[in-house]
Design goal:
The complex is a heterodimer. Chain A contains 19 helices and no strands. By secondary structure, chain A is mainly α. Chain A has a single domain, classed as Cytochrome C Oxidase, Chain A (Up-down Bundle). By secondary structure, chain B is α+β, with helices and mostly antiparallel strands. Classes of the chains: A mainly alpha, B alpha+beta. Chains A and B meet through α2, α7, α10, α11 and α12 of A and α1 and β7 of B.
Chain lengths: 535, 159
């Protein structure tokens, strides 16, 4: 498990380096051309950035972190060591299989791999194995939970483990889309077994998974915010029932929303797009509850530390003393901005202004590179000492690191949103785009470039801190897994908040309504076309 | 109701539900009240038949009424055909789009024009150009190594 975390950070380093080059490209500075062949190719780099960060950095960390939450929550080891070993082999082997043809320029199709751009079969196969690894990891969590329940009949599942379990349940349903696209279309097509694919079908199946994958990245951060962070500031979880409701509500709400990524697409009808828009808005509900419950839990801690006043208690939090706490709080601030931009993205008509502009990756970066990555970095400031038994190297520097990441992200996102509103398309080698002539684009591009440089420096500091903790720290670590206790005793709780089956059943019904008719129509009546390699 | 939910928390939840209901209302009003709609299922055309099927066999601009035009644009790596159209100010243009190869995009900055172009599918979008000037149309979906050079332009001439 420790190795999965190190590998996850290695992916962060590789993807982050290319990310900085892409940021500089937005201000007209092309450093790509100094790289050796074939690495100097912009879209190869963009594919590496997306695959390493979107698929591998995230998945590796999630598997390790949710395993820890399960094991600690239930106070028992994973049910099957063999399954855990298989998970590791599948995750790492799949990652290598996908990255090799990416680095040799045989799969420059970006992380969304929209057909009929055709990548190397190993690229699709590798990513599929990574998804299979998430299934084996989820299965192991489920088996561990079942083992625990047998020994604790009638007891309520501890929250930390239950939150992990709901994350896996959500993901098991959500990943079916991309898995179907891979197994029935993309892998046989790239291997030459079937001549043509349906580009609208594979794109729809991608977004079946592509929207909830964001919640798959986010929920481990929620696990930290709800079940760990309150303990780190000396607080209590304000309400365990609501925490459970939030995690559970992501199961039905995450999946039947994906068409909001395809509002300007032909071939999908108005009515189903509007249905997905409405369901996407429903996700606002758990987010707003989180805004109250997590902040209230932290407030309990701040008041116990002597915080007073209506808002002055915020100053009692260790913003400048505890990097693990401040990193997560700053991540939440970024998350709140991204929540608002996310609503704009999902707003049917308004989406036409920003669809496929730099605004969208701006939003994505506040959520994944901001909220999620910052929370995970901050969590690793207790996690790595826990796993290695060595105290964190220079915690003061770590405070600098998280603040620098926050400012870099804020500046870069400001620039990206601005450029998007001004009409700059996403995913372009902007330095060489003949239409990049507007003065407004240039100013915003400077923000993107300088923000990404701040994040590069912050990222380098992060690897220095983690590296020195692992290799050079002499002091023994005195840390344990933080586990927040509930503020009020939970004596009455609806049984439905400790079960998965009803939630999964509702989800299946929603999927059947929101997805199946469109998918069936697209698969049976829309054209199948040949593949292209255009890079 | 569970025993550990605070009174303030409950008030907040009701507030959230009200906000959400309001947002639903605005969303549905924009769609049905104001008639702002996104792309729908317009029709299919196989990429191999584009060259022989009207109107895509003859890409270009056609006048279809007073101040009304139809622009048929075929996208392929990495050009739009035609690369430029010229119209007088005040014209309403209906763009009909399809692709010969991979997925492309069609975005005109500072207008509401934003469409995906998917091989096998037809996209349609209508816009009135009142201000004279040059409006670029930009491919905004990755379509290979020349993606960033794929663009065209609408020249709106003063009357």
């Amino acid at each position: 498990m420790r190795w999965l975390i190190y590998l996850s950070f290695a992916m962060l380093a590789v993807g982050g380096l290319y990310g900085a080059l892409q940021g500089l490209d937005k201000m007209g500075v092309d450093l790509y051309r100094y790289l050796p062949d074939p690495l100097y190719r912009y879209y190869l780099g963009l594919t590496v950035h997306g695959v390493t960060l979107g698929w591998l950095f995230t998945t590796y960390f999630i598997i390790a972190f949710l395993n820890l939450a399960t094991v600690h929550g239930l106070r028992r080891p994973l049910q099957s060591r063999r399954l855990a070993a298989a998970t590791f082999v599948l995750a790492v082997g799949g990652g290598i299989l996908a990255l090799v043809p990416t680095f040799t320029n045989e799969s420059s199709v970006l992380w969304t791999f929209y057909a009929p751009l055709q990548a190397h079969p190993a690229f699709y196969t590798g990513l599929t194995l990574v998804v299979v690894a998430t299934w084996t990891a989820g299965l192991n969590t489920y088996l561990t939970w079942r083992g625990w329940k047998k020994e604790h009949p009638g007891e309520r599942t501890p929250l930390m483990a239950f939150a992990s379990l709901t994350t896996w349940a959500m993901w098991a349903l959500a990943s079916a889309g991309v898995a179907a696209a891979m197994l029935f279309q993309l892998i046989p097509w790239s291997a030459g077994l079937i001549p043509q694919v349906n580009p609208l079908l594979t794109r729809s199946l991608f977004w079946f998974t592509g929207h909830p994958v964001v919640y798959f990245w986010l929920l481990p951060a929620y696990v930290s915010w709800y079940t760990m962070l309150p303990a780190q500031v000396g607080g209590r979880l304000f309400s365990e029932s609501l925490a459970r409701l939030v995690f559970l509500s992501f199961i039905p709400l995450a999946v039947p929303t994906g068409f909001h990524h395809m509002f300007p697409d032909p071939g999908v009808t108005h009515s189903v797009k509007l249905l997905h828009a409405v369901l996407t808005f429903a996700v606002v509900f758990p987010s707003l509850v989180t805004a109250f419950t997590v902040v209230a839990s932290i407030e309990v801690g701040a008041r116990r530390r002597g915080g007073k006043g209506l808002f002055r208690w915020l100053l009692a939090l260790p913003w400048l003393r505890d990097p693990s706490v401040s990193g997560q709080l700053l991540g939440m601030l970024l998350f709140a901005t991204g929540g608002i931009t996310g609503l704009i993205n999902a707003s049917y008509g308004m989406n036409l202004v920003i669809h496929n502009t730099l605004w969208v990756p701006g939003h994505l970066h506040t959520q994944v590179a901001g909220a999620v990555a910052l929370t995970w970095m901050a969590a690793s400031f207790w996690l790595v000492p826990l796993l290695t038994g060595r105290a964190l190297w220079k915690p003061k520097l770590a405070v600098w690191q998280v603040w620098l990441w926050f400012f870099g992200m804020a500046v870069m996102a400001r620039g990206m949103h601005w450029m998007g509103l001004a009409g700059v398309p996403r995913r372009v080698h902007l330095t060489y785009a003949p239409y990049a002539v507007f003065d407004e684009w240039r100013m915003a591009g400077w923000l993107v470039g300088s923000g990404s440089l701040l994040m590069l420096v912050s990222g380098a500091l992060f690897f220095l801190i983690i590296g020195m903790t692992v290799w050079a720290s002499k002091e023994p670590a005195r840390v344990e897994v933080p586990e927040a206790k509930p503020l009020h005793p939970v004596d009455r709780m609806p049984r439905v908040l400790d079960r998965l089956t009803p939630w999964v059943a509702v989800t299946l019904v929603l999927i059947a309504i929101a997805w199946l008719p469109s998918l069936y129509r697209i698969a049976t009546t829309h054209p199948y076309v040949s593949g292209w390699r255009l890079w | 109701m569970a025993s550990d939910i605070d009174r303030y928390e409950l008030i907040w939840i009701y507030l959230c539900a009200a906000v959400l209901a309001g947002l639903f209302g605005v969303l549905l009003y924009s769609a049905f009240g104001l008639g702002i709609h996104v792309e729908t299922d317009v029709g299919q055309i196989h990429p191999t038949q584009v060259a022989t099927t009207a109107p895509f066999d003859q890409p270009g601009l056609r006048q279809v009424g007073p101040d009304e035009y139809e622009a048929v644009i075929v996208a392929r790596a990495w050009v739009f055909d035609p690369p430029e159209i010229r119209i007088p100010a005040g014209s309403t243009v209906t763009f009909k789009l399809t692709s010969l190869d991979v997925i492309h995009g069609f975005k005109v900055p500072r207008t509401g024009i934003n469409r995906m172009i998917i091989p096998g599918q037809i996209s349609v979008v209508t816009h009135r150009f009142d201000e004279p000037g040059t409006y670029p149309y930009i491919c905004h979906e990755y379509c290979g190594s020349g993606h960033h050079i794929m663009n065209g332009g609408i020249v709106v001439e003063p009357r």
